[in-house]
Amino acid sequence: MEKLFRDTFVEERDRVWLATHHLDGEVYSWWVGIQDNPNTDVATISWKRFKELLLEHYFLVRVKRKMEQDLREMHQGDRTVAEYEREFTQLLHYAPFVVRDDEDKARIFERGLRPSIFQLMQPSNLQTYQDVVDRALIVESRAIDLQGRREGSDKGKDKRPAAEGASQTH
C-alpha cells in the first residue's frame, strides 16, 4: 500500500482514510474499536502513527500466540530436567501471559517432561511449580542411579566365576 500511495501521489492526510477503507475482518474490528474510543481523535492520527498502532497490535499478538504455542508444546526430549527447566523458565520470561497461575505453570512444565519421568510423577499430584521441578529432579536422579546399578550388575555378569577347586590366595 505504501508503494501505491507514493506512485499515485496520495497525500499524507488521505492515507489513513484510504487504508482503513480497505480493512476487513478482525483488523476492521480493531480499527472500529479505535474509532469508538472517546479518547482518540481519529482525524489527528498520522499515517506513521497508524502504521505504528497496527504493527504494535498485530505483530505482538502473533508473536504472543507463537510464544504461547512454543511453551505449551515444549518437551524435555534428551535434555536433563535442569536443562529443560532452564529453557522453560527462559521462554516463560518472555511469555508470562501464557500461565494463569503457579499451578498452571506447574502443569505445563509437567506435561513437557519425558514420559518415563512424567509417569512416575502422576501419583504425587503436586500443586506448585517448584514442587514439580524438585520432584522431577528427584525422579530423574533415581532413574540415573538405577540405570548405573543395572549397568554395574550387567558388567558383573560378564565376569566368569573362579573355577571350582582352584586355589585362592589371600
From TrEMBL:
Query: From which domain of life does this come?
Result: Eukaryota
Q: What is the protein name stated in its UniProt record?
A: Uncharacterized protein LOC109705042
| InterPro entries membership | Retrotrans_gag_dom (IPR005162)
Q: Which intervals hold domain Retrotransposon gag?
A: 18-115
The UniProt annotation puts the region (Disordered) at: 148-170
Basic and acidic residues biased stretches:
148-162
